[in-house]
Specification:
This protein has about 80 residues and is mostly beta strands. It contains 1 helix and 5 strands, in the order αβββββ. Strands 3-4-5 form a 3-stranded antiparallel sheet. A two-stranded antiparallel ribbon has the order 1-2.
């Protein structure tokens, strides 16, 4: 079921699962986000709804509705 933009998630795993289930995981973010990895402090550009840090493989996820807000991006886990 689609929650629109009102869905609430407790962690990045829930976001990643939802975005993957809907087929949006490879969808490009209109304006890529400059991210700093919470695991290794590496910098990278988040270009898709589900992305990973190229240094440590920490996976990050965001919903399409909130893809313009870096504060809505949550870590899902290494290799998730």
């Amino acid at each position: 079921m689609h929650d629109g933009c009102s869905g609430s998630f407790v962690d990045g795993k829930e976001i990643a699962d939802k975005v993957r289930m809907m087929g949006y995981h490879d969808m490009l973010i209109q304006t890529p986000l400059d991210m700093v990895c919470a695991n290794c402090n590496g910098s990278f550009k988040m270009e898709t709804m589900v992305s990973h840090c190229p240094l440590c493989d920490m996976v990050y996820a965001v919903t399409p509705c909130h893809a313009n807000n870096p504060q809505s991006v949550l870590p899902a886990g290494i290799g998730y």
